[in-house]
Amino acid sequence: MNKRQRIKKNEEFQKVFKKGKSFANRQFVVYCLKKEQQSEFRIGLSVSKKIGKAVTRNQVKRYLRQTFLELKDEVRQDMDYVIIARHQAATLNFHETKKSVEHVLRIAKVLKKK
Predict the structure, then answer these.
(1) Which residues 6+ apart lie within 8 Å of 30 measured at CB?
(2) Which of 18, 64, 73, 106 is the most buried (most CB within 10 A)?
(3) pTM for the whole thing?
């Protein structure tokens, strides 16, 4: 993921939280906000200290970034996404993480049909 595709600033996170719609499953909560003028999607990751120590949190973030990298052609491009990892996300391996994120994105109707 290059820097243009990341949400870093608190104001941008808050805008997605306030104006976006949320969708959830047991492992992740995804907030989606449509941005008309945007040519590629942006993601913001939130992994709380409640999830685990730094190694665990960074692993969850790596899995999420890699999942979005693999799904970049299927995900709607004119959106901002904020993903919040829940406690159960720490126990997942990469393939389970990808499957769970795909599930929550299908609920949000932002994945293209195969």
Answers:
(1) 22, 23, 24, 81, 82, 83, 84, 101, 104, 105, 108
(2) 64
(3) 0.91
